[in-house]
Design brief:
8-stranded parallel beta barrel, 12% strand, 50% helix, alpha/beta
């Protein structure tokens, strides 16, 4: 493992989970559920917890709720896992303020999504990310997710952002392996797969870890997958990935990842409610049946 990957693992972890935000039946943040879920993630060998990302329903969390959840997760993890706070929005000033609040609440690092909805130029993307990176002393993981943001971070943009001393990693949900290899070859950015369907391909080309929605349920399997790839045991890695195909499909390719991950955690008794906030809706019956079958298989 190269030095920059060792550094990235220290800063962010390698087996990261995009944690859902447990909510009560009334839609309020469920503090007991947060504690139970963090305990489960730690027990299943998660070493990095992303709070307030896509799976955490970030667009519907208020700034105060975000601080509440970051503080609760940091307090519960107590150094056993890195806590990465999702602070990116389409408003640079708001993102800067959220970054500062996350640092004060105990976050170890920041996740900054490509600004969505407003569709800035690539120069605007650079300016936005640099402003957030300059707002605190925390390391930054960029989040490139064009399916949600409406735009991607171009190769040249990522290479330029890599010059900033606190921008250290990319959560890549662009699903362009050649682009990822190009940036990895040109920079010291550590790559993390942000699409559960492609965890093995990304790890095989040099990603140092994953940021997984399915990891809410089976982070231990992801830990085994990462270990197998690092040990050059691709037969075992393929077997692990294949064993997760049904669950990955049920969570990521039915209604929506946060919806299905919460449903799975409720089925397993880790959280009490599968409540999501509108515009998300709870799991339709056919999807829940498919999820139950997949859970039984793993």
């Amino acid at each position: 493992m190269t030095d920059f990957r060792e550094t990235a693992q220290t800063l962010f972890g390698s087996n990261l989970v995009a944690m859902v935000t447990p909510m009560g039946a009334d839609g309020s943040v469920d503090a007991k559920g947060v504690a139970s879920l963090v305990d489960h993630l730690l027990a299943t060998r998660c070493d990095g917890i992303v709070v307030g990302g896509t799976a955490g329903e970030a667009p519907t969390l208020t700034a105060a709720e975000m601080v509440e959840v970051v503080s609760a997760v940091a307090g519960r993890a107590r150094g056993r896992a890195r806590v990465i706070a999702g602070v990116g929005t389409y408003d640079t000033a708001e993102s800067v303020e959220r970054a500062r609040r996350a640092e004060a609440a105990g976050a170890d690092a920041l996740l900054v999504v490509c600004p969505y909805y407003s569709r800035p130029t690539q120069a605007g993307v650079v300016g936005h990310c640099l402003a957030v990176a300059d707002a605190t002393d925390l390391p930054v993981m960029l989040y490139d997710v064009p399916a949600r943001a409406g735009i991607s971070m171009d190769t040249d943009t990522l290479i330029e952002l890599a010059r900033h001393p606190r921008i250290r990693a990319v959560k890549d949900a662009k699903e362009d392996l050649f682009d990822a290899m190009t940036v990895m070859a040109a920079t010291s950015l550590a790559y993390y797969c942000g699409s559960d369907e492609l965890n093995l391909p990304y790890l095989s080309i040099g990603a140092c870890g994953v940021v997984s929605v399915v990891g809410n349920i089976v982070a231990d399997r992801n830990a085994e997958l990462i270990r197998a790839v690092r040990g050059a045991d691709l037969d075992s890695a393929r077997a692990i990935q294949r064993s997760l195909l049904g669950l990955t499909e049920a969570v990521m390719r039915t209604s929506q990842g946060a919806i299905m991950a919460k449903a799975a955690l409720a089925e397993l008794g880790i959280i009490e409610h599968a409540t999501v906030r509108m515009p998300l809706l709870e799991t339709p019956a056919p999807d829940l049946a498919k999820l139950r079958t997949a859970l039984a298989e793993v």
